[in-house]
Amino acid sequence: MLEGDGNMTESAPRLRADARRNREQVITAAREVFIEQGTEASLEEIARRAGVGIATLYRRFPDRGALIRAVVLDNMAVITEELEAAEKEEPDAESVLVRLLRVVVRRRIGALVLLLLPSLHEDPTTHEQVRAARASAIRRLRPLLRAAQREGRLRGDITITDIALGLVKLSRPLPMIAARLNDAATERQLELFIDSLRASSADGTGLRGKPALDADPNDVLGPPL
Amino acid sequence: MLEGDGNMTESAPRLRADARRNREQVITAAREVFIEQGTEASLEEIARRAGVGIATLYRRFPDRGALIRAVVLDNMAVITEELEAAEKEEPDAESVLVRLLRVVVRRRIGALVLLLLPSLHEDPTTHEQVRAARASAIRRLRPLLRAAQREGRLRGDITITDIALGLVKLSRPLPMIAARLNDAATERQLELFIDSLRASSADGTGLRGKPALDADPNDVLGPPL
DNA sequence: GCATAAACGAAGGCTGTCCCTCCGTTTGGT
DNA sequence: ACCAAACGGAGGGACAGCCTTCGTTTATGC
């Protein structure tokens, strides 16, 4: 969760302290619930988990779309922030990338980055805003991946889409399984996934199956990554 | 879907031809819907997707539990069957295992194998039956994995649980994304996952993080695999 | 401190969905 | 051709989620 003034989108009068705190709690709860149950989840449950009355949620986010939007933008901001920190502190591209993966999974952000885009596709207002945030993130991520591949640390037949989708699936907790188990499993799978991205995993024949998801700019996933 | 007489559990009079057909369609639909939405999904949607009236579903499966049970047993049967075929036709353990993974994912079975167990845990009636099927599958799978590891083709720090959970996550389609996209993504991720299991992926340091999920026989996942 | 505007939570009417049964109709098997 | 078996859909009851209204609480500026 980014600090900020909790008002990166429209210019509102400025929230009271408790209101700002509640707003962030709602976004955090929404992020978790959306990942677990999808964006159709009950808003009342989100409010409950945020420790907040349902009215408070509606006061801050007039409809479901507004809440989704807020979560997505917040996620994007976290990613950007973390990316900058990593680029300063890590020695090479591969380290930056791997660190980013770990953060994204641990913070449960992965899923929403891609997952929520389709819903926003309808909304002409903020679609541009979200699209811009996403485009900017990709503009930074792509050269990073290229670099790591040139370093010879990551396999060459991987695309950003592969990584993004992998994160999405990793991040989704399995329903009807205890949280602790889910966390343990996710961590383990993440390390497996990271290993699978490394150059040593490529068996020379390249990935079986088509490059999948590369094409079709009109698709949910936007232009080829 | 296994053929059989559609009556592997209790001894019923013998179903009419159309009834048997409908029964299988319901199971198939249930498998898909359960994977997508969890076992709390609407039974009416399952009936709809099976192209069958809601009454027909209830006639065959008196309650939700019965349906879940049927799906699980069916899945187990398919796995066993496929395993036997693969063991006859494939040259080594690794090939058998990989082939099995591909079948399980393509048939959308993966998720349910583990996913449904917790729900059944409550039910004293059929729990034993399911537990037996599962135990028998594991008894066959474990030596297979060991063999593949001895062959030096699969990394040594992998457990059956790792594989099972990997399959579960792979198999779950992402909500609000077109089916075609989901299929393409899943296929791609599966190949990545398979590569990650190979010995060449291990970087010598072993998997970061604890062996996770190995212990606690009282857990959802049963005894260590 | 205290006044006041901002923010809060909970109750409740409304709507839609899902569960499950009942019953008139259709269909497979002999 | 007969009839038991199987079918589908309508519909009542229950319930969960949406969103608003309203009386109460709390942060903030003087």
UniProtKB/TrEMBL annotation, chains A, B:
It comes from Nonomuraea diastatica. Keywords: DNA-binding, Transcription, Transcription regulation. Residues 20-79 form the HTH tetR-type domain. Residues 42-61 bind DNA. Transmembrane segments: none annotated. Gene3D superfamilies: Tetracycline Repressor, domain 2 (1.10.357.10). Residues 202-225 are annotated as: Disordered. GO terms for molecular function: DNA-binding transcription factor activity; transcription cis-regulatory region binding. The keyword Transcription applies. This is TetR/AcrR family transcriptional regulator. InterPro entries: Homeodomain-like_sf (IPR009057), HTH-type_TetR-like_transc_reg (IPR050109), HTH_TetR (IPR001647), Tet_transcr_reg_TetR-rel_C_sf (IPR036271), TetR_SbtR-like_C (IPR049445). Pfam families: TetR_C_43, TetR_N.
